[in-house]
Amino acid sequence: MTQQLAAPAPAGRFAARTTRTADATREQAAAFAVLQPPRGSSLTRFDDTVALPTDTPRRLEEILRALGRALRRMPPLAELSHRSLARQAQLQRVAREAAQARARLAAGTYGTCTDCSGPISLSALREKPWTPRCVYCALDI
Question: Are 105 and 132 in contact (CB under 8 A)?
């Protein structure tokens, strides 16, 4: 008895959707790669309390550009799975926080907690340059 193999999936709408999803996934991975802290970034003094990486403005711009590209290339909402919807919401939240961090940088309040006005640790700013809160306020201690 011979086994019959299933016919390949029809090209067209399914293939186009798969291609769009794969492209969106690659773009999201590239966006998250930009979010990783740089290795060996140089430091500068800021307000005598917080040392900030000198590449913070450039890095925030890179993050915003990468997130914008990732969000533009995502498939329409109707085609997104539950996990993709959650990823899109996360990308939108980080983009919003990065834009707010850029505004704080321009205003001279970057590196200061938005809740308690205390300094944000250098390690927190290296890990997430868009973070608006110090460790204590973020953990609600």
Answer: no
- Structural domain contains residue 71: yes
Model confidence pTM above 0.85:
no
What amino acid is encoded at 141 in this protein? I
Q: pLDDT tens-digit profile of 52-70?
A: 666 778 888 888 898 888 8
Residue 78 vs residues 81, 82, 107, 120, 131: alpha-carbon distances, Å: 8, 11, 39, 40, 31
Considering just the CA atoms, what is the radius of gyration of the chain in Å? 21
Measured in residues, the chain has a length of 141
CATH of the domain at 79: 1.20.120.910
CB 63 within 8 A of CB 98: yes
DSSP structural state of residue 77: G
- Domains: count for the chain: 1
